[in-house]
Fold:
Amino acid sequence: MATIKDVAALAGISYTTVSHVVNKTRPVSQEVRLKVEAAIKSLDYVPSAVARSLKAKTTATIGLLVPNSLNPYFAELARGIEDYCERNGYCVILCNSDDNPEKQRSYLRVLLEKRIDGLIVASAGGDTGLAQGLAGVKTPMVIVDRGLDGVDADLVRIDHEYGAYLATRHLLELGHRDIATIGGPSSTSVAQMRQAGFCRALKETGIKVRPERLLESDFTSTGGYNAAAILLENNPPSAIFAGNDMIGIGVLRAAAERNVRVPSELSVIGFDDIQMSRYVYPALTTVGQSILQLGEMAAEVLLRRIATPSLVTDQRIVTPSIVLRESTAPLSGVFTEYR
Structure:
């Protein structure tokens, strides 16, 4: 691989002058510039990003740590972050931890060693190990979607509690009273907030929260499928609030295998509004906001933090809304006016 000294030798000038041409740090004559550019092209020389970053004290690189890249939510989130960063001259290094604390620590160390300019962290929440690892990090940082206790950083997330409240209110307004929820792991802040919103909506309507209608799963279609199989086995509810769209998709599959018609016999609503939820059958009613825009917002907040480190810590809580599709309907025999 050609070096800056090889370029200098071929161009017949000092490597310091080549450096000035490459990094645009000092004016040079047109003749010298043309010689350097011709030598670079001839040798297929690629400037060292590490060397340039040491001089400029910036790498124009953002680190992104996600817990599960197979989850479409995080894939869409990453796309929004990448699109915004690319438009603003930054590259993104994506690290997938698979919810493995050891991988999280390892990737965090690697990202910081690469002298990234900023870090975006998407966590499952309630992760004390990750929180401890991030507590002393001086790199500009944004936590996206799921807060981490003890980490002083900018935060961008959906209002999980209110979104779950909206979803449950939607089912109640359709006349449903026997409503179950399948949430994510109870150790995660997201699952806790979404279950709180579900319970608040029931209590406001005077409906007792029944423990057997509160199921814990994980945020996957497999988890939703297995939990729905339990709910649909005996005395099934008339409606299910799924803790995210992936759980909801698993519920739809479990219902179809048992010849439970959605939405005439069972209404199902999800959370997040991932793109896939529009194309399953029936299309999944859900609660959410544009995940791409959420990613862009996180990237915007981070780049602002990089430019002005002294800014007061920013918290942006995005209000979700109902996205009506085909998987929810009035309880059989009940006329309900949509509001």
In short: The first helix runs from residue 4 to 11. The first strand starts at residue 61 and ends at 66.
